[in-house]
Amino acid sequence: MPHVTGAMTPDPAVNTHCPYCSLQCGMALRPAPGEGRAEVVEVVERTAFPVNRGALCGKGRTAPAVLSSQVRLTEPLVRRPDTGRLEPATWEEALDRVAEALTGTAQAHGQDAVGVFGGGGLTNEKAYALGKFARVVLGTSQIDYNGRFCMSSAAAAHNKAFGLDRGLPFPLADVARTGCVILVGSNLAETMPPALRYLTELKESGGKLIVIDPRRTRTAEQADLHLAPRPGTDLALALGLLHLVVAEGRVDEEFIARRTNGWPEARAAAMAHWPEMVERITGVPVPELREAMRMFCDAETSMVLTARGPEQQSKGTDTVGAWINLCLATGRAGRPLSGYGCLTGQGNGQGGREHGQKADQLPGYRKLDDPAARAHVAGVWGVDPDTLPGPGRSAYELLDALGGDVRALLLMGSNPVVSAPRAAHIEARLRSLDFMAVADVVLSETAALADVVLPVTQWAEETGTTTNLEGRVILRRTAVTPPPGVRSDLEVLHGLAARLGWEKGFPTDPEEVFDELRRASAGGAADYSGITYRRITEEDGVFWPCPEEPHPGTPRLFLDRFATDDGRARFVPVSHRPAAEEPDAEYPLFLTTGRVLSQYQSGAQTRRVEELNRAAPGPFVQLHPQLAERLGAAEGDPLAVVSRRGRAVAPARISRDIRPDTVFMPFHWAGEGRANALTNPALDPVSRMPEFKVCAVRVERMERAPG
Ligand SMILES: Nc1nc2c(c(=O)[nH]1)N[C@H]1C(S)=C(S)[C@@H](COP(=O)(O)OP(=O)(O)OC[C@H]3O[C@@H](n4cnc5c(=O)[nH]c(N)nc54)[C@H](O)[C@@H]3O)O[C@H]1N2
Ligand SMILES: Nc1nc2c(c(=O)[nH]1)N[C@H]1C(S)=C(S)[C@@H](COP(=O)(O)OP(=O)(O)OC[C@H]3O[C@@H](n4cnc5c(=O)[nH]c(N)nc54)[C@H](O)[C@@H]3O)O[C@H]1N2
Ligand code: SF4
Ligand SMILES: [Mo]
Question: Oxidoreductase among the record's keywords (predicted)?
Answer without folding.
Answer: yes
